[in-house]
Amino acid sequence: MSAHDLEKAPAFQAPPLACDSHFHVFGPAERYPYGTDIRYKPPLAPLEDFLALARHLGCERFVFVQPSAYGRDNACMLDAMRAVGAKCRGIVDIDENAPDAEIGRLNGIGVRGVRVNVNPIKPPEPGYSKTMLARIERLDARCAEIGWMLDFLTPGWLTQELLPVMRKLRSRHTVAHMGMFLAKDGPAQPGFRQFLDYLRSGDLCWVKFTGTYRMSVAPGFADVAPMARALIEAVPDRIIWGSDYPHLSFADKVTSTGLFNLLGQWADEPMRKKILVENPQRLFGF
Q1: Where in the sequence is the domain holding 163, given as residue range(s)?
Q2: Domain count, the chain
Q3: Is residue 273 in a domain?
Q4: Global model pTM greater than 0.85
Q5: What is the spatial distance between Cα 90 and Cα 97, in angstroms, rounded to a whole number?
Q6: Which end of the chain is more exposed for a tag (fewer CB within 10 A), N or C?
Q7: Predicted pLDDT at 237
Q8: Cα–Cα distance between 26 and 43 in angstroms, integer?
């Protein structure tokens, strides 16, 4: 963790039992080897560094998310989850045909979902969602059976393309980075409007306030505020927040404290309690 992550105090006090619902840990490469398809140079971001940040922000519950650099080797995250215990949950990346015994083992550790993760800067490729369909359908059936969720991280054009698929899902599912629609195009852009319509149409889809810096081009990420507020108005009971620590290739541009403070600009105190405590408690079963 860089020293500037802890330089400034948060702009508001986190309520008791606040949850960071999306972050990653990275251990020593010699102990936790990276996968073959690496999109970025992974940093060393051990559990103890994250926990120091969590104390700084006032977060007491945690949802680990498997980073793409490790592929489907979840060992680093699972070791960290064992160290933390009952205060955490996890989202893994596994093969859709993983043995039932493996899923049961993961569930016992605290895993509650599976990632569907596509490079957020992947250029538009119409019809790409069809290549994902078999995996999504198989995972959905298995997640629905055991009470797990699917966790989507996709570029905005693909989020939009996947909406008809999401409408058919039986399991709960989360969408990271507000769907990854570019903030410069505002909340009136067609894909985001369709996303809002989908969110209002049912109760299985939850939105993550994460990765603001991946959507924004404005100073202070001011262009994201209208989209965040539109989501709060649409589904206040299905929004969660995550630091997305350690911010990977953006680590020299943002701090977790600065991103946490944005929530204070977007939501009043009762709404922040929903986003940080009540909603993740209900979704992840704390």
Answers
A1: 19-284
A2: 1
A3: yes
A4: yes
A5: 19
A6: C
A7: 98
A8: 7
